[in-house]
């Protein structure tokens, strides 16, 4: 049986020996193609695995939490949108690690396709040279942004190619690949054929605003229409599969309007993975790139194998993507997985776009923001905090330099940084930088501990729900509570009174410093470098910071006799050009980024 099946597959894939077969009903779609006589022989259809929906917090269980960003297209260096997705993914990965979860954080680059070859030619480089250069620019930026990824996959990696071909053969064996002529309007930038009804005047792509090319090709097709009912059932019974909810509604609308089979090969594109046994065709970029989420799970030292890769962590717990590639991840990808008999990811989360000063960013408008420049100017903590705090995750967000500086100065420099600095200053002056009592004793007789613990739990729930902005706000509320307590108690005045008042003041400082310790842990998913600086000033080592978990946000960590470091600003205010223009004294520049501890610094590829 196996030999016969192999012979049928080989016969199908050899374009010089077409099979004679009539088209089946589920291949009748709205595509404008004329079917050739070649069609894959149908085998037994594998039952698709339903997506699993574990607790959003990620705690408990032995399965790894597999988190992915898109594999970024290397036609150009990284932009702010790709940086935003990756920052958000990193914050989620760091939070899951704090919960004690084994995390596999996957990112990488999508390096095949017509657009890549064109970009390389424009720069007088080979496609391979171009991909090496741009891929490295992503790795470099992720290091600057403290991105702690575990796997960086490139689609030009030989292990990826092997797994793509094996996956293709599975789908073929399931009877879901056939050959046909196709004529339509193709957007090179989208790497996709377009429906005339979705195009603008002069057949312009609504995303790239450029005319689509009229093309006629002999391609291999995936029978997406066959999975119409299965996808409808998945979306209806697993509403968390696509998030936020309004993205789910969008996907359900696409599916209900009718699914069309789509081309999974290109006859006119040389830079890609060859279709097995058909060197004249290359595999379509999306049918190639989506498999990177699985091929990334393969260990470098082992022979590439689809089942082995799947057993290393698939299905993914969370795909984080921009809303512009939602259709590929929430419609095409699950159908492909069903065809191959593999489990579906638990959740696809589509976030919004970023604008600048209320306007869409674009080179023609001259208002693009280079993420490298932003990090060099303001530092990774400021960039990470602003976008995760100010943009409600899932919705569109806006960047304004003035608001960026105001938010970062108010939250990181003033509310958090200044609270730590003035408290350590008072401790040095009055207590020789040494804690007088345990933090658990210092807080007795107050409601302060209860307030902080409620806010910590609030932050934990928000992180688990992917409400990153609300998580930042909850942690910021802790610092506001500390500042309010400091101002009401006025320990500087109590120290002057001496006696019992001075002892009370010493306890007040312990309470505030314990608050700062908790803030350092609770905010570390968002600002890892800043959190280490806080922890370091509280007298802890890098190893102790590395070992911290979410359970360490419980009150009582600081003990009597602990010696604090000498006070120095952990985040100095950023210069505000507007203040300078108005004649105000310009504050000092932000502190230079310091080395992150072992487990919390970015992982290099």
UniProtKB/TrEMBL annotation:
A GO molecular function for this record? ATP binding
Catalysed reactions listed for this entry: tRNA(Met) + L-methionine + ATP = L-methionyl-tRNA(Met) + AMP + diphosphate
Q: Which UniProt keywords apply?
A: Aminoacyl-tRNA synthetase, ATP-binding, Ligase, Nucleotide-binding, Protein biosynthesis
Q: What is its EC number?
A: 6.1.1.10
Q: One Pfam family of this protein, by short name?
A: tRNA-synt_1g
Q: What class of enzyme is it?
A: ligase
What sequence ranges are listed for the domain Methionyl-tRNA synthetase anticodon-binding?
446-581
Q: Where is this region: Disordered?
A: 573-605
* Residue intervals of the Methionyl/Leucyl tRNA synthetase domain: 198-424
Which residues fall in a compositionally biased region of kind Basic and acidic residues?
Answer: 596-605
Which GO biological process entries does UniProt record here?
methionyl-tRNA aminoacylation
SUPFAM superfamilies per UniProt: Anticodon-binding domain of a subclass of class I aminoacyl-tRNA synthetases, Nucleotidylyl transferase
One GO CC term, this protein: mitochondrion
Q: Which InterPro entries match?
A: Anticodon_Met, Met-tRNA_synth, Met-tRNA_synth_2, Methionyl/Leucyl_tRNA_Synth, MetRS_core, Rossmann-like_a/b/a_fold, tRNAsynth_Ia_anticodon-bd
Q: Which NCBIfam families match?
A: metG, PRK12267.1
Q: Which family does it belong to?
A: Belongs to the class-I aminoacyl-tRNA synthetase family.
Q: Which HAMAP family match?
A: Met_tRNA_synth_type2
Name of this chain's protein:
methionine--tRNA ligase
């Amino acid at each position: 049986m196996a030999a016969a099946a192999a012979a049928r597959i080989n016969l199908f894939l050899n374009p010089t020996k077409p099979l004679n077969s009539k088209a089946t009903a589920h291949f009748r779609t709205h595509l404008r193609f004329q079917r050739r006589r070649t069609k894959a022989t149908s085998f037994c259809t594998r039952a698709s695995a339903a997506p699993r929906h574990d607790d959003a917090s990620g705690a408990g269980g032995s399965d790894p939490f597999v988190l992915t960003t898109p594999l970024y297209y290397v036609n150009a260096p990284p932009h702010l949108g790709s940086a935003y997705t990756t920052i958000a993914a990193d914050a989620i990965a760091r939070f899951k690690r704090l919960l004690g979860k084994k995390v596999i954080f996957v990112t990488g680059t999508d390096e095949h396709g017509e657009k890549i070859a064109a970009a390389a030619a424009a720069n007088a480089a080979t496609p391979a040279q171009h991909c090496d250069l741009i891929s490295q620019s992503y790795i470099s930026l992720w290091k600057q942004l403290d991105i702690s990824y575990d796997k960086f996959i490139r689609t030009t990696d030989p292990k990826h190619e092997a797994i793509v071909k094996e996956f293709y053969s599975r789908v073929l064996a399931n009877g879901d690949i056939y050959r046909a002529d196709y004529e339509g309007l193709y957007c090179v930038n989208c790497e996709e054929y377009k429906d005339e009804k979705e195009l603008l005047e002069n057949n312009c792509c609504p995303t790239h605003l450029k005319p689509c090319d009229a093309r006629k090709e002999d391609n291999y097709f995936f029978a997406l229409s066959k999975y119409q009912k299965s996808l409808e059932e998945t979306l209806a019974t697993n509403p968390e599969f696509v998030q936020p909810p309004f993205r789910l509604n969008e996907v359900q609308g696409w599916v209900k309007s009718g699914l069309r089979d789509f081309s999974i090969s290109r006859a006119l594109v040389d830079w890609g993975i060859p279709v097995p046994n058909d060197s004249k065709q290359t595999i379509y970029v999306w049918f190639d790139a989506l498999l990177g989420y699985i091929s990334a799970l393969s260990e470098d030292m082992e022979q590439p194998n689809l089942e082995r890769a799947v057993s290393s962590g698939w299905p993914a717990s969370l795909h984080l993507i921009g809303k512009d590639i939602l259709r590929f991840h929430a419609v095409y990808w699950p159908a492909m997985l069903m065809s191959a008999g593999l489990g579906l990811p638990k959740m696809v989360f589509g976030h919004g776009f970023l604008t600048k000063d209320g306007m869409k960013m674009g080179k023609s408008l001259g208002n693009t923001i280079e993420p490298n420049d932003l990090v060099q100017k303001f530092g990774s903590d400021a960039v990470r905090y602003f976008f995760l705090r100010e943009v409600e995750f899932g919705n569109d967000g806006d960047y304004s330099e003035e608001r960026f500086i105001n938010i970062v100065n108010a939250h990181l420099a003033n509310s958090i940084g200044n609270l730590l600095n003035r408290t350590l200053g008072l401790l040095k002056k009055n207590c020789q930088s040494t804690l007088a009592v345990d933090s658990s004793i210092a807080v007795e007789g107050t409601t302060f501990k209860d307030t902080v613990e409620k806010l910590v739990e609030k932050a934990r729930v928000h992180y688990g729900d992917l409400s990153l902005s609300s998580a930042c706000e909850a942690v910021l509320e802790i610092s506001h509570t500390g500042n309010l307590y400091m101002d009401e108690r006025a320990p500087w005045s109590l120290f002057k009174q001496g006696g019992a008042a001075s002892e009370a003041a010493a306890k007040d400082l312990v309470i505030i410093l314990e608050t700062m310790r908790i803030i350092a842990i609770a905010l570390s998913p968002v600002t890892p470098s800043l959190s280490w600086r806080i922890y370091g000033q509280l007298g802890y080592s890098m190893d102790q910071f590395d070992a911290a978990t979410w359970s360490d946000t419980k009150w009582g960590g600081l003990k009597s006799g602990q010696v604090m470091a000498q006070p120095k600003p952990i985040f100095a205010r950023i210069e505000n050009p507007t203040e300078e223009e108005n004649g105000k004294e310009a504050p000092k520049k932000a502190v230079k980024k310091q080395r992150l501890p072992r487990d919390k610094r970015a992982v290099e590829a």
